[in-house]
Amino acid sequence: MRVPAHLKNDNEKNTGASGGFFNDKILNFIVYKGKIIETLFIIAFIIFLVCYPMVGVNYDLSKYLPDTSYTKNALDLMQDEFGYPGMARIMVRNVTVERAKELTMEIEKLDEVDLAIGPGTFGNIYLTDEFIDNVFIDEFYKDGNALIQVIFKHGESDLETHEAIDEINRIVGEDAAYSGTAIGNKLRKEAVNKDIKIVIAISVIIIIGILILTTESWVEPFLFILVMVVAIMLNLGSNIFFGEISFFTFSVAAILQLAVSMDYSIFLLHTFTSFKDEGIEIHEAMKLAIKEAGKSILASGATTIGGFAVMALMEFAIGKDIGFVLTKGIILSLVTVLLLMPALILKFNKYIEKTSHRKFMPEFKTLGKIFYKLRFLAIIVVAIIIVPAYVGQNYNKFYFGDGALGPGPGSKLYDDGKAIDEEFGKSNMAIAILPNESLKKEKDLTKEINDLDFVNFGISLSGVIPESVPQDFLPKNLTKELRTDKYSRIIISMNTAEESDYAFECSEKLNDVVRSYYPEDSYVLGLTATTMDIKDILVKDYSFVTIASAIAILIVVIISFKSIFIPLIVMVPIEVAIFVNMVMPYLYGQSLIYIGYIIVSCLQLGATVDYSILITNNYIEMRQTHRKREAAEGTIAKSTLSVITSGGILTVVGYIIYHISTIRGISQVGRLIGRGAIISMILVEILLPALLVLFDRWIIKEKYEDNIEAGEEKNEDFSHPVSVVNNENIGG
Q: Model's pTM, two decimal places?
């Protein structure tokens, strides 16, 4: 219901003349072959419903790094030589050193555990404890609490790793505290699966409430939801063609598809109802409605697709993941609305009529007058804030890596991590991969690493084993974890956060030390090193994506209006809304996940620019018969219900994600979406009419300028064809 184009009653329309994409053959098939269309959609729905559980979900951001990145090359090497294991940090409370050693050994015996490092880690190698380096007691046992660092055989998101974590929990008991990437990944997976169900359930209930308030039949809201459920399942199930999608995409794709494409159905039904109310037979009315609404619906989808599709061009491949899935979702929504929706409307038409009710929403004539009076104030306020808002958003504090995707304060994992850090200090794990050349060089490097003030410990085979002990005497799991025929590894614990300026500085210093011994074919891996790579790539991606999405959407709007100047006016309120939305975290002192910053910037532009198109279209239409003031006031009154319906749904969805999601990064995205929708609605309702009036002379064709001014000076109504845009071609 974003751009309800003016319903013309000329002879061409009433005779159902064909033209453009929706010719008579296509229209007749859609309208008269409803059973075939329903059957095809039912079959597709069942197929993709079965496929949906088979779609993999990836929780590792490092997999989206480009093949040319430092971290990606290092990860590939480690995967080939050692595997890419998940890690966990476990604190067992109120245990003796002897019991802590027993627990460490018991954990290490688990099939899916490669290495467990804790008190007495190397005690089983020697005959007496005098060989144990005291660092392993000091670092892993304090005040009756034991710390066990676990390295798994499989990756942090693998089912085998998660099953091993459950076994460890059984061994050490419920009172233990847990942290680490494998633990976070397991809990994140559980949280996403739980959160998404709650978000969708609550969103559907509230959206139905919004639709009941803004429609005139009790059946209509449920018909809209049914069509969207079909479109969403087609999208989710068809992700099987990608093999897997990111958990970020999995968390927001369904609900965003629902929020941004719901009004395609609303617009089609309302256009059909308008023709039907003129006395046109329902099948003919539906053909006219598809022709009338279809062009606007397609153009509306094009603006949203323009915002999403450019994300697929990001170097950081999660953009491709999100962009492809959301773009596919909008396309499937368009197909479902234009094919299935007409069949369902005709099928349930009598029930729609029988369950009609009075309008619950008021007229907005008074609001139009108020906003018109505020036009100069709106322009002045925006002129004052636009530059500070644009500049201020660049001073936001951003998170780029895995840390921002963990649970927030109050969650068990957050509290456990804090408790472990307080007792044993921070432990930011890193791994140095070196050519297996010289035992002495490796041992010297290990010693220098351990001498760094930010390092808790560095463990290498040559660094912790006395020279007199032959390598063949060591347990195979230890040697396999730390050395292969070609490469050696040093497992390093840094006393830093995983993502901070200090952590970045320490990671660079660690890398410099390793490179001083092994200038070639050596790498330093870890969450910090990965995050540094992600940061460098995402910052470049943001500049490209924001410009590309704006250009793509501007092109769609230019084509829709067949004008260059009008689209610039259309874009201004939305761009200002984005600046204001993105500067708010800076003003509140909040941190943002950078991926979310990029996604919401594109989404807010693509999804809410339609509000501007709606109001601009209505203003141009009303200027054919009204003076500027009357046109502006009438436009606000006429457009407000459509804007608050569409924007209200997007706002509700955003804030439900914000309040329900236990993952900080996704919760932040929800808040940005909800707040962005509100700001966009306010600015298109107040600022845009003011700009349309201010630039009215340039918006209306110059050849009609004298007639308009003369009519205004005489305070007379006038009627002439001044429309710059053919309403049939205006996008929603």
A: 0.81
